[in-house]
Amino acid sequence: MRVAVLGGDGFCGWPTALHLSNQGHDIAIVDNLARRNADNELGTDSLTPIAPLPVRLSAWREISGRDIAFHNFDVARDYDGLVALLRRWQPDAVVHFAEQRAAPYSMKSPWHKRYTVDNNINATHNVLAALVEAAPDCHLVHLGTMGVYGYDADGVTIPEGYLPVRVETAEGDWVEREILHPANAGSVYHMTKTLDQLLFQFYAKNDDLKITDLHQGIVWGTQTQETRRDERLVNRFDYDGDYGTVLNRFLMQAAIGYPLTVHGSGGQTRAFINLQDTVRCVALALENPPQRGERVNILNQMTEVHRVRDLALLVSRLTGAEIDYLENPRREQESNELNAEARRLPDLGLQPITLADGLLGEVIEIARQYRHRCDVSRIPCRSHWRAAAPDR
Ligand code: NAD
Ligand code: USQ
Predict the structure, then answer these.
(1) What is the CA(31)–ligand 1 centre distance, in A?
(2) What pLDDT score was predicted for residue 118?
(3) Cβ–ligand 2 contact at 378 (below 6 Å)
């Protein structure tokens, strides 16, 4: 297959590009390096020393004998560049990771809110319009988020995308429908993913585009089979208060002896997946496209569910780290249950890697190996969901 990986320099995109290349697919990465620029803006850096993308690509060529092409442009702005690439190269599939993905970053200021919406919605809409114009048979695989469903505390089981409902007509008859599960975003970032969903529904219906939306949980881990093959291929590891996600942050904090930063009581329950499973799931989605004219194919890409407090206790038991219960900078439920269906990817062949498989130790090793690169001042989360109340 010819596969364009949009956002292929990022945390999930880079290992996915390598995995697909290793499977024998022809890969072209599109990335405007916005994530590396965000590090410059925030004064942060990956804990692991990630090589510049051209160095990564020549290392991969040296090690695997395979070429990956790189096109440096902004998918949200350079519509003509995107159309030209699709028309010239005619990919069988596009994997779309090219969005601003951090909830705290999206809530930092009006500028960050507007950037996240402009970037994410325009990128997704440009991809859809360009596919209609230049490659209507191409399969689009998008990385969505479990966060589109929200974290209500009512214990209702979350379906894979579509919720069966019965509605009473004016005549008193009952009509059965399947609707998109109601959107319930917890940040401006998560809201962009709920808007993406509506764009997909329209383009699948109106233009018969083949679209798969993978609602992914929080990704933990750093390396995959391919990124481990050479230090120049090492994947990024975010630990700062904006881009670092909870479990990787805890593992890195434990490695440097920093008390684990639990927000509030840590009663928040979230879905998780290991990075190696992420790349496997994308490959499975590519092997199982919907047909033209079918509705958007939605799969929940998560393998286990954990409460934040329990993760802190687990990491503390493994490492002896202290736990700090901090005032929560976010506006979110203090505590929730999470019951979500996630059968479709295992039914396609996914064999999940779980926290219990001992891989936590491997991530701790990575964190220990590179702890000298940590800037402790970047650990606290300084992005607040609501402006401080004015003095009265
Ligand atoms: P990332 O920020 O590391 O990677 C995103 C990549 O896209 C970056 O390399 C960035 O430079 C690029 N990009 C952003 N906007 C672009 C644009 N307009 N044009 C071209 N390139 C652009 O993020 P990630 O963690 O790899 O996440 C990838 C996708 O997976 C996101 O859409 C995210 O919402 C989703 N996701 C991530 C996680 C997670 O835990 N990391 C969990 C669920 C879903
Ligand atoms: N949290 C802490 N301490 C920390 C960091 C986070 O207690 O140091 C808490 C947060 O308050 C939140 C939970 O941990 O309750 C998860 O936060 P997170 O930053 O790990 O994850 P989130 O903001 O939800 O975003 C991440 C990715 C995003 C993806 C999402 C999947 O950045 O791209 O969409 O996970 S999901 O959570 O399923 O929506």
Answers:
(1) 10
(2) 98
(3) no
